[in-house]
Amino acid sequence: MYKLILIRHGQSEWNLSNQFTGWTDVDLTPQGVEEAKEAGRILKNSDLDIRYTYTSYLKRAIKTLNYVLEEMDRMWLPVEKTWRLNEKHYGMLQGQNKKQAVEIYGQEQVTLWRRSYDVAPEPIPEDDPRHPRNDIRYQDIKFKAARPGTESLSDATRRIIPLWNISIVEKLREHKQVMVVAHGNSLRGIIKFMKNISNEEIIKLNIPTGIPYLMELDDEMQVVSDRYLGVTDEELKARQEGVANQTK
């Protein structure tokens, strides 16, 4: 049995201020740090034996992984950082308050931008300082899709799945247990792909910050079981509703 552990980064500064973040590189809040540490404590007290880790190029995920590993006393684990695990790019929405966006564009449209599979916000222009083409982290990535001005969940999933097929599956077969610390939408893309969730149903999937999510996989890398760790059903439901209601 193979085990894949997914963690959305702890609360970020823009989670707290309810702003669309995307590829903007914001830090964790003190609560986010504690969420990350608690995830590490949960994993340390489990029977898991994680041997390889992945994270994105964004510091809210990188720092979350570091805090998790420190609490697990596994700072020695190999870490692979990749732009493929970055959050979905929110285009011109990045930096906007989510409730204010609803006032401007309407609840239905903002929900489509946030949670649908194939609707992307308006892109930021290539000469905008916020565009990934103007960020040193992405200068060596030659093909256009690696430096988007906006993305739908479909776009984000298309850049993530090659990482799964080429790298994560290989590391799972080698190490048996792998952890990915990333972002709400990059993890939604992985879960959609792994569980074959429909384009219509994916809109209902909300991933709370800082709670480990365990997938157990068979020899064909098919999901046998999945569950959140270290949280009651009531707390999980409340945290998921909090994500869903950020625009209300």
How is this structure best described in words?
The protein is α/β, with parallel strands linked by helices and 248 residues long. The chain is built from 8 helices and 6 strands, in the order βααβαβαααβαββα. The chain has helices spanning 13-16, 30-44, 59-72, 98-105, 107-115, 153-175, 184-195, 233-244; strands at residues 2-8, 52-55, 79-81, 177-182, 213-217, 223-228. The protein has a 6-stranded mixed sheet with strand order 3-2-4-1-5-6. Helix 3 links the parallel strand 2 and strand 3 (79-81). Helix 2 crosses helix 3, helix 4 crosses helix 5 (107-115) and helix 6 (153-175) crosses helix 7. The model has no long low-confidence stretch (mean pLDDT 95).
Work out the radius of gyration.
17 Å
Q: Identify the overall geometry.
A: globular
Return the structural class.
Answer: alpha/beta
Q: Calculate the terminal CA-CA distance, rounded to whole Å.
A: 41 Å
The SSE order reads EHHEHEHHHEHEEH
Estimate what percentage of residues fall within beta strands.
Answer: 5-15%
Q: What is the spatial order of strands in the main beta sheet?
A: 3-2-4-1-5-6
- The helix fraction, in percent, is 25-40%
